[in-house]
Write the structure tokens for this entry.
Amino acid sequence: MSDNRPTTDDRLGHHSQPGLVRYFTLIMSVLYMVLGIYLWFVPAGTINLPETPRQLLAAVFVFYGIIRFVRTYQQHFRKNRDDAR
């Protein structure tokens, strides 16, 4: 089933700069991963959080950053398979 409906941006008339948005989302995903790594390795007592919740929060940040990075890459940087035909 082919989906030829216009995107939400097309329907609403919003046309953002796709280059800026895609690089911003990549940078944000990297920042989430860096924040998670920082939380994981920060010395005890620096952040007022017990070790186990801090490490769980760190894992969530890293996991979310990875998911966001992969989705952004697939959506904005991967060549569309339909274009290759």
